[in-house]
Amino acid sequence: xxxxxxxxxxxxxxxxxxxxxxxxxxxxxxxxxxxxxxxxxxxxxxxxxxxxxxxxxxxxxxxxxxxxxxxxxxxxxxxxxxxxxxxxxxxxxxxxxxxxxxxxxxxxxxxxxxxxxxxxxxxxxxxxxxxxxxxxxxxxxxxxxxxxxxxxxxxxxxxxxxxxxxxxxxxxxxxxxxxxxxxxxxxxxxxxxxxxxxxxxxxxxxxxxxxxxxxxxxxxxxxxxxxxxxxxxxxxxxxxxxxxxxxxxxxxxxxxxxxxxxxxxxxxxxxxxxxxxxxxxxxxxxxxxxxxxxxxxxxxxxxxxxxxxxxxxxxxxxxxxxxxxxxxxxxxxxxxxxxxxxxxxxxxxxxxxxxxxxxxxxxxxxxxxx
Length: 370
Hints:
The protein is α/β, with parallel strands linked by helices and 370 residues long. The chain is built from 13 helices and 9 strands. Helix 1 crosses helix 3, helix 1 runs antiparallel to helix 4 and helix 9 packs across helix 10 (220-236).
């Protein structure tokens, strides 16, 4: 009997295995490289106002990459979601111009849209960011009417379309809650269902036994959000609940702490709804965090601590730099003037002619002294 050499096909089999292994390795390296490039761009827009910001960004990198990897492997658009843009600050006396978006929101949307465009430059399928307004979750706690929340959201969508921010999308109530709503949501229907939305949200995703004091003490992310809430609430509500007879500063701060905890309880339910509706999206946040579960973002490119456009105003300086701060502080600066857009105050701008006069005056005074 003639024996067939067993080594005849071995090299071919080994070659195929080696080719598959090489291809798999090459594919894995390509995915890793692309995902890292995408994440590096996103982190350029991250919140960096704290001493430990870089440590926090590094902490979540493995998780964030695993989320981005799924899009890269499928060669699909990287999808992100950001709960934000609720309504303008309740403090219309000192912090913001009014109830509608202005130049601050435009700069923030442009920044987020630019981030997505840059991702498309290194990863051809590109990226899309869905903004999930949390306005109806909290507005009644802060004395903001449902109608104002609607007006802000509609104006924001109009602004995004008008400015061509094509990589930005906005969620709707029906994306988060499952109860009957008309296909086209109008203001009256929105207002009529505002309470229904909150009730459904808290009933489905809330926890009756949530010990918020324990969460604040034990969960660093919750604690940082709580401290952030307390800080902005103290300034936001100052003119709605003014100090005076029956309300001391101590009592006001105590009440603010209570409100902050109520916001956390509602935020817990809202986070559950977001996770259910957008389970595979890369989760972005406006709040300082440990960086392990979400990417903390800075919506305004500014050197100040005002990084959310609904809590501040913006000013364009003579050198082209945008800065953020309170409307009241900007109004006190004689070198700044209010610029109107569409018949409404939108931002501040440094008076270049006045700046030249001031410089010339200083030089003249120096020459006279000389």
